[in-house]
Write a structure and sequence with these properties.
With 271 residues, the protein is of the alpha+beta class. The protein has helices at 120-127, 158-169, 218-237, 239-245, 253-260; strands at residues 2-7, 17-22, 33-39, 44-50, 60-63, 72-78, 91-94, 101-106, 109-112, 145-147, 173-179, 182-188, 192-200, 203-209, 247-252, 269-270. The longest helix is centred in the C-terminal third of the chain and has 20 residues, at 218-237. The model is unreliable at 1-26 (pLDDT under 50).
């Protein structure tokens, strides 16, 4: 499997610089294994039984048991084993870190105008374990609307605004996109939070966050600051691309490299 990431670092003759990274084609057929998984958040490695996937070193996974919901990386795969299955917890999901598409420089982020390049449904799995079958989600919002250039209309306290600004400056808005009028962002705090909103002609409405706050929060404020910056850079440098598709997705540079490239043991990278 190969994917190409094009970075428009300069516009000499309107030809973007292309970055290509190639990884080996993986077999889709599950292969039973006992794997060692390292959890950076706990600085510990544990063994898990796998019978659902064809796992390889470097794969990012989610497991059940006490570390359910915490992302880990496979460090060792053992196919030669005999175990009592009830003694082991299992790998329940593999994170899809393949990326394919052209990205452009946009400050602290890379931005793409291709819906298939890095959809929100893929990126959210980089930060959050899959929902369980019996999980139920509901959401609601008030009727508050405000102009993106007038964030004081969000009615946040100065403390919340300052904390949100810190989040923005620390690049904790890992991903943000707009598809037509639908907006979505992932903001990393004590965990990864999902921010959703409507965006029409500069107006923001239906702003919600998956954190426990019952008011406009620092995650929302950080996402709005990131949206301001990203749209300004797009308008200045890539207006035609955005007008053509009505879509953009921006991912922080560190996030793209951490998930799409870091941990791969084979392949090539050309800039």
């Amino acid at each position: 499997m190969a994917f190409k990431i094009g970075f428009a670092a300069g516009r000499s003759e309107n030809k973007p610089v292309e970055t290509t990274y190639t990884v080996p084609q993986q077999t889709a057929t599950p292969r039973k294994s006992v794997v060692q998984v390292y959890f950076a958040g706990r600085n510990m490695t544990l063994a898990y039984y796998n019978d659902q996937f064809d796992l390889h070193r470097g794969d990012m996974v989610y497991v059940d048991g006490k570390l359910e919901g915490m992302r880990g990386r496979v460090t060792e795969v053992n196919y030669n084993f005999k175990i009592k299955v009830s003694d082991y917890k299992r790998v329940i999901a593999v994170v899809d870190t393949t990326v394919s598409g052209q990205f452009f420089m946009a400050g602290s982020h890379f931005v793409t105008f291709d819906r298939a390049a890095l959809p929100a449904s893929k990126v959210v799995a980089w930060y959050k374990a899959p929902a369980k079958v019996d999980d139920e989600f509901v959401s609601g919002s008030d009727d508050t609307t405000f102009n993106l250039q007038e964030l004081w209309r969000m009615n946040v306290s100065s403390t919340i605004a300052d904390r949100g600004r810190d989040y923005f400056m620390e690049n904790k808005v890992k991903y943000i996109c707009i598809d037509g009028t639908k907006g979505y962002a992932i903001v990393e705090g004590s965990e990864a939070y999902e921010v959703e909103f409507e965006y029409r002609d500069g107006q923001i409405s239906a702003l919600t966050c998956s954190c426990f706050c019952s008011y406009n929060c620092k995650h929302e404020f950080a996402a709005m600051l990131q949206l301001q910056e990203t749209l300004e850079l797009i308008e200045k440098n890539y207006a035609d691309e955005y007008d053509r598709t009505g879509y953009f997705a921006a991912v922080s540079k560190g996030t793209l490299f951490a998930f799409a490239i870091d941990g791969k043991e084979t392949g090539s990278f050309t800039l």
